[in-house]
Amino acid sequence: MYLVIAEKPSVANSIAKVIGAYKKEQGYLEGRDCIVSWCLGHLAQYASPEAYDEKYKNWDYGDLPIIPDRWKLVVAQDKKKQFETLKDLLNKQEIDYVVNACDAGREGELIFWWVYCLSASHIPVKRLWISSMEDSAIRKGFDDLKPDSEYKNLRLAAVCRAQADWLIGMNATRAYTTKYAKRLVIGRVQTPTLNMLAQREEEISGFKKERYFNISLDCGSLIAEKQKIFDEGEADRLYKRCDGAEALVMDISSTDKKERPPKLYDLTTLQREANRYHGLTALETLEAAQNLYEKKLITYPRTDSRYLTKDMGDTVKDIIPLARNLFGLSLPDRVAPDVDRLMDDDKVSDHHAIIPTAELGGQEAAGLSEAEEKILRLISLRLLEASGEDHIYTETMVEISCGGDVFTANGKKIKQLGWKQYGRYRKGDGEKTGTDTIRPIPAIWKNQTFHPVKAEKTEHFTEPPKRYSEDTLLSAMETAGNNEFQEDTEKKGLGTPATRAGIIEKLIRSKYACRKGRQIVITEEGKALIGILPDFLRSPSMTAEWENQLLLMERGEMDVRTFLTGIRNMITMTLNSCDIIPEEDLLRFREKDSIGVGPLCGKLVYKGKKNYYCSDRDCRFVLWKDNRYFEKMKRSIDEKDAAELLKNGRVTFHNLYSSRKDKYFDADVIMKVQPDGRVDFSMEFPKRDK
313: burial class by Cβ within 10 Å (0-12, 13-18, 19+)? Predict the structure, then answer.
């Protein structure tokens, strides 16, 4: 008798049908020689700090760092019943071995391992490692069960990832929360991701648009243009020289070019295109893809590979016509699909690229949700595109002389549509997408003249960087820190394909970011958090390096102790940075201490021990209580004076001392703040009645 543990009930049901476990029991299915049960996702998690010591219930900076000697696991409250079922099954005497059938990846390994550890079971473990939920794939997987020892390094990487997230999240969050007396959530991956949003917002707010001009020539059969003239006087002079003048064709050059078909989807690329074409969030795409996988319609979605293995050639050839028929794509190929291009064993790690399965031709494709139908369409079309012909076109550039300057016109003529023939089907409504908008150059010849030509001057402005969409943020996360690694380093960026959607959702749930249409924008709370953190906590490159180390650990090339030592060093650095935060800065989130808004940036100004300072760390404005200007007049700036100066730019002082006249006087003091933050004062004296 053997036991199979899947990640979800739906997967367990699919496996049970294949291996003959039909009898339903409470929390499992039983067959003649097997039992199939499930985990309900993450049943267990690392315990919170108070489970190690009651004193941690009260958040106290003096108790940090919190680094468990022995890690404690606890079962999620709403999943205890299913855990008890699994615990009983894992300790049944008649069970000879257990098959870990959780999702074939780092998180699936962790889900099973934590349940196995908590159950105190000692029965042998075997691993089911499949990339498709098709019956044939399941049968083949059970015929080729792997020993658990082959996945030891993957499990170590999963455990280290979870411990690193706990250590940094718990310690950094408690450190900054207790220091600033405000709930501040910090994460190993989510904080560097938030920092990318903050940097983009800074680029946008600091952008200074520049005006420029384009001059175009209407030559009758074509339009030539000279772009981005930033000097309006120069643009005006060129316009006057050209309007009504003669234009000469100086040169015509044509080049044949090819666009190779795109690669197959990995999860991140699928999420990006689903957002671009359909507005689906990364999480919505992941959930739809996971549902399609469990419905046996696509292969395992949580992959970072865009290639197939060489033994899949015949399978793919059978699937391609099914994909075409499903969406009514009757366009005939002039040649057979090129499936060899899709295969590269060296570029497939745990799982190959996402493709449809042979189940595509069955009734299972009916009754899908709108999101599932869109994702299945994208995956099917990508298979057709990736195995299609090259897109071939002729690109022509024309140089035209007029008014002593050179204008250009570009044209494109398609010779073979190739893989781009499928673009029109991507949205599912007949709309053409990804088609070329550049028209062919009309029939002209070198030294041809046009007279007279009509010139036109148009005004334009440079544009700031665009805010991140889910599409572009996923791309930025995937490539974060790449420029800081050696060229031959395998780069993994922030998070993994399986976790990036969750990271984005965490930022939004914590209100550090929000969605505005398809844009993801940092909030004021997010800006405030990033504004207080040191570079090493918000560095994408450091977090990306950890992802690389976890990958090396999976391959047995990174020592666990070395990795966790780096994490503990980070905690030490975090606490050291908290120890040197200026006292006045610790008040920045306490709005009751705000005395007004800064004259330079409009942010809140707080009362510190020796000064009044701006809540924006990048702002240079500061107003000292004991100011040299007032020192000789035996006065300092109290809170009331500072609030009045911030509100009106002036305040009336009584009993100012004049050493020259040895007497006291009244005067209005005017404050002027320079762009560099320097504060200048001047006086006006009240007019005396005659």
Answer: middle
Of residues 497 and 461, the one with the higher pLDDT is: 461
* CA pair distance 244, 430, nearest whole angstrom: 44
Q: Which residue has the tokens 């007029």?
A: 402
Instruction: Considering the candidates 116, 151, 277, 300, report the single residue annotated as catalytic.
Output: 300
**pLDDT higher than threshold 90 for residue 359:** no
pTM of the model: 0.78
Report DSSP state, residue 676. T
Q: What is the pLDDT of residue 591?
A: 55
pLDDT one-digit tens code per residue, 526-583 = 999 999 999 999 988 888 888 889 989 999 999 999 999 999 999 999 999 999 998 8
b/e code 141-150 from CB counts within 10 Å (16+ = b): bbeebeebee
Give, as one character, the DSSP assignment of residue 451: S
* Chain centre to alpha carbon of residue 248: 50
- Contact 316/273 with Cβ under 8 angstroms? no
Q: Within its chain, how far is the Cα of 462 from the centroid?
A: 26
* 586 vs 514 pLDDT, higher one: 514
Give the chain's mean pLDDT: 89
Q: 10 Å Cβ neighbour count for 107?
A: 19
Tokens of 96: 């000879």
Q: Tell me, what amino acid is at 556?
A: G
Q: Which residue has the tokens 């366009």?
A: 331
Mean pLDDT of 402-416: 95
Q: Is 512 a catalytic residue?
A: no
CA dist., res. 259 & res. 393, Å (int): 9
pLDDT at 355 over 70: yes
CB hemisphere CA count around 564 (13 angstroms):
16
Q: How far apart are CA 446 and CA 172, in angstroms?
A: 69
pLDDT value at 23 more than 80: yes
| d(C-alpha 405, C-alpha 535), whole Å | 49
For the chain, list the domains and their CATH numbers.
2-144 (3.40.50.140), 161-205+467-581 (1.10.460.10), 211-260+392-461 (2.70.20.10), 267-389 (1.10.290.10), 591-684 (no CATH)
Residue whose C-alpha is closest to residue 66's, from 191, 174, 183: 174
Exposure b/e, 258-296, CB count within 10 A at least 16 = b: eeebebbbbbbbbbbbbbbbbebbbbbbbbbbbbbbbbb
What is the spatial order of strands in the sheet that 650-658 belongs to? 650-658, 663-673, 679-684
pLDDT mean over 501-518: 94
Tokens of 287: 């959930």
Closest to 513 in 3D by CA, of 525, 505, 502, 523:
523
What are the residues whose beta carbons fall under 8 Å from the beta carbon of 8, sequence distance 6 or more?
A: 38, 39, 40, 41, 294
Write down the H helix ranges in 144-281.
Answer: 152-180, 190-205, 232-242, 267-278
Beta-strand ranges (E) seen in 28-128 are 28-31, 34-38, 44-46, 73-75, 97-101, 125-127
Amino acid at 69: D
